[in-house]
Write a structure and sequence with these properties.
Shape: globular
Largest sheet: 6 strands, parallel
Oligomer: single chain
Strand order of the largest sheet: 3-2-4-1-5-8
Structural class: alpha/beta
Number of strands: 8
Order of helices and strands: HEHEHHEHEHEHEEE
Radius of gyration: 15 Å
Strand content: 15-25%
Number of helices: 7
Length: 185
């Protein structure tokens, strides 16, 4: 079931509370579709003054970066206004190399990180999870449905320990779901 609350309001609240406690928001996201939807929501929050423009936004997925370029190039074909699609990457830092991703995972400055994979089953998001899951200042924000048995589903179910790179790590970060933007019924 999709909740009645506005996903934009919920996202604004989650980011605000996470940054107030000195943490970052990690959004595991599918590279095509979900990453761009999240960027669109974040840009809307910035444009309306509900997201401090000093909070850096990182897109850490080479595939998502390429897909975003396609979305912007073909903005007229999308349901979102073309002007919003043109500004989709304003102030967004593109993380293209593994070394950049590793440095970002070690960062202590509050930020918003969108990284693949969406169900936290593989990809660069694992490095961020390893760095962030044990720290209660951070939020792990899942945007949509998590298939049963996936690391994302287990985190959403409240698992307090997760295996990443063969190591069991405690999960002390706040785990949230932005269910209102799921593509699933």
């Amino acid at each position: 079931d999709h909740p009645d609350d506005d996903p934009l309001d919920r996202l604004a609240d989650i980011v605000k509370h996470t940054v107030q406690r000195g943490g970052s928001v990690l959004m595991p996201a599918f590279a095509v579709g979900r990453a761009q939807a999240l960027l669109l929501l974040l840009q809307r929050l910035r444009r309306t003054g509900r997201l401090d423009p000093r909070i850096p936004i990182f897109l850490d997925s080479p595939m998502a970066i390429e897909a975003t370029a396609l979305y912007r190039r073909h903005a007229k074909l999308l349901a979102a206004p073309a002007s919003e699609m043109r500004n989709l990457c304003d102030g967004v830092r593109m993380v293209t190399t593994l070394q950049q991703s590793q440095r970002l995972a070690g960062s202590r400055y509050p930020s918003i990180i969108i990284s693949a994979s969406g169900m936290a089953t593989g990809g660069r998001v694992l490095g961020h999870l390893k760095a962030m899951a044990p720290d209660p200042r951070h939020t792990l924000l899942f945007a949509g449905f998590q298939v049963g048995g996936s690391r994302g589903a287990r985190l959403m179910a409240g698992e307090r320990e997760v295996k990443i790179f063969g190591e069991m790590l405690p999960v002390r970060a706040d785990v949230q779901q932005l269910a209102g933007i799921s593509g699933h019924a």
